[in-house]
Amino acid sequence: MSVERSFGNALRFGRTMGRGLRAVKWRSVALFLSALVPFGLLINVMSAGTLYAIALLGGLFVSYLLWSYYVVERNPRYESLFGIRALAVGGVGYLATIVWLGWLTPSPIAIVHLGAVVLIFVYYWFIAFIAFFHDQIGRSKYVPRPPYPNVTVLIPAYNEEGYVGRTIQALLDADYPAERLEIVAVDDGSTDGTLAEASAFAATSDRVSVVSKANGGKYSALNYGLLFADGDVIVTVDADSIVDRDALKRIVAPFEANSRIGAVASNVTIWNRDSLITRCQQLEYTIGVNIYRRALDYFGIVMVVPGCLGAYRREVLEEVFAYDPDTLTEDFDLTMKVLRAGHRVSVSDARVYTEAPATWRDLYRQRLRWYRGNYMTVLKHWPVVTDSSYGYLSRIALPFRLVEMFFLPLASFVILAYIAWLVLTGYVMTVLAVFVFFTSIVFLIAALGIQIEGEDWRLLVYAPLLVVGYKQFHDALNIRCLLDVLIDRDLAWTRANRIEQDSSEERESAPSAD
Questions:
Q1: Does this UniProt record's set of keywords contain Ubl conjugation (predicted)?
Q2: In percent, how much of the chain has pLDDT > 90?
């Protein structure tokens, strides 16, 4: 009898293991582990001192992460110890140590080069790894289940004629109980046919209402719309975006699964991929936004709930007093307020299709607002950086964001200058080897992101532009926007032209609900 029982247990264990192995996404595993080749080649050509320096910094970083996990999850009374300020002091001590030991030549170029190499290690083996692990366990795939909450969708619109109707129609066509859905379109003083286009839907559907106000900006349009909202969950959708049929069910699912979640982000997809610029933007979204959000979702600290599709618990919005006029990126600012209030912010599989700028000029105008707003938001919430009581937000999310916003754009041009000097002095093969390494890593990250997100594999062709060309455009714009914010220029709202509207029309400079 015991032999039969043992055989039965072994058989059940084998079946369980078989199901587990079948559940593994092996293509993602192969893509992730293939990075061992370029990293191995890089390590092989590095000097011993550089390897020691990277290993020492890696040890410091791992110790910081493990300690952060311990104090946040297990023992908050020690949260003030070894926080971001202590890490900064440790970083200075680290630099002094490796210079004293002769592992690093004390020069700005050497420090920036070491920082770039370390960051690519950290990004791949920490951020990309968590996103990969996140995908393997299916953490973001909350299963929508009834009963569904009452939802109010707010659509702020300024001069969105030809777009707002499609947005409303997509919401009416969404797979969501009609009796639990209301749609409120807010006309923010449009000067075109936006109000009439939205009102036509209100005349034929009792689920749609339209309100109008004088132009005051997107934040004021959303706050005004909240006055007419009855739902327990507030969903915001930009007037140029189209939600997937199951998007509403998917974006509210995390609220039912976890009462600590205060806001939920969506998966943003560009629909007009008919040019080099828009395809580069989709690849940027795939590896720079969606992958990054998946990693932060593991800790409940997704930093931006996108305005094109995002969801909030109504009581959380009321708790943080909704939208502020302080920045040009109201979505980033509001998400920070929700996180600071102690709520988790998660990501969902809700997909939204949005229009991306189709020309360099329009991309410049869009990102001018985004990057200025990002710096304004970070400076507004600067106390979080040095306050360890905010947990993972201050210990992980913001430090990464600060490096991304302040160090990387400047380091990019220092490295470019160094590369130019190497080329002029005859080190062409060295430059080529460095380019191949960084491109291969970006290529693998892009491939992993495409696999996870189910994106178009043809986007991989544009991966080199995220190393040279497209990247420098954004780095230069980031530096310009940082200077704008620091010297407090008149930071007016800038807006990209719409493809299906007259591109030659001169847009007004009033702050738009866009």
A1: no
A2: 59
